[in-house]
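INFO  loader      accepted 1 record
INFO  loader      residues=285
INFO  predictor   begin
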Amino acid sequence: MTNNAVRTLIGGLALVLAALTVPAAAARAETHECAPAKEHPNPVIVMPGGGIYSDSGADTAIEFLYGALRRTLREAGFCTVAFPHGIVAGIQGAGPIPDSATAFAAFVDRVRAETGADRVDVVAHSEGALVTNYYAKVLHGAPNLRRIVMFSPVTHGADPAQVATVIGAGTYPGGPEQLVTDFPVLVQAAGTVLTPFPAAMQCVAGSEVIEAVTRGGITQPGIRYTVLATRKDPFLTPAETTSFIEEPGVLNAYYEDLFPAEAPTTHNTMPSSPSAMNWVQKQLT
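INFO  predictor   done
INFO  writer      dumping tokens
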């Protein structure tokens, strides 16, 4: 990365900051429009990942990424609803993880009240899994949950160096660490831009949120946990140290091992894979 490129990056960050108008984080929960069937008495809440943006709003993007999953589960008889959370400036999952978890707690109570169910199941993707695990452990919501099925979950946090490599900093001579040493203003600029979107930093290994969820163990009594990861994930790699929950009773699996004949999947596309959606149904029974 040349000096000119670095100046361009810093200038771009400044322009983003100048143009940004950030409202408070919000959650836009849909109406339920379904009742649990006798064979599937537990409602299913789909928890999207973060960083999803659409000019038409986060709801449109979430429908594009998770609509097939929700429809597949509904067609199989599951009362399934989605919970967009932490929406800031049209970006899903940008608000603080604890705030999203608190909003999720209220939504779980609402779903239980409207459906008459004692507990709910959750199908969570990426940051949505971190929000769910924070709710279950830190906010003591475990008694309200039966199953947590996770796609590429942010469990132990993303490695900052790996993320930097993915976005191109790894091509700088000496790697991301040397880039920061040579151009410390980058840290200040990036931190300023990300300040309105705290979830981005809370998903990094070592954050207070990650520590709160993982310290002393993640799993909670009464919940069955399942993790599906992919070796093609550019951000949460390797899954054994970033996504998997290596605790008794947890099923950890790689998409490539379960579906070796399928086309490759990635961090973002796995929830819409037909094979993965069928696999989810089995985990919810």
